[in-house]
Design goal:
Helix content: under 10%
Radius of gyration: 10 Å
InterPro entries: NA-bd_OB-fold (IPR012340)
Shape: globular
Order of helices and strands: EEEEE
Strand content: over 45%
Length: 66
């Protein structure tokens, strides 16, 4: 999971549990997402990279550099 890119489908920010769609096992799955940098907000549609994974469905993400 760490290092995979995903797309934000539910806004991520302080006090919010966002949602990210990440490609897994030939499909795409939803994960609960938190920002890796405290107080950062990431809007819907942004591309992010998973920096931490907590099974079964929680990830911490950072904005992808494009």
């Amino acid at each position: 999971m760490v290092g995979k890119q995903g797309r934000v489908t539910g806004r991520i920010g302080p006090g919010l549990v966002g949602e990210v769609m990440v490609p897994v096992r030939g499909g795409v799955e939803a994960f609960y997402a938190h920002p890796s940098i405290p107080d950062e907000e990431i809007s819907v549609g942004s591309i992010v990279v998973v920096v931490e994974y907590f099974p079964p469905r929680t990830v911490y993400v950072a904005r992808a550099v494009v």
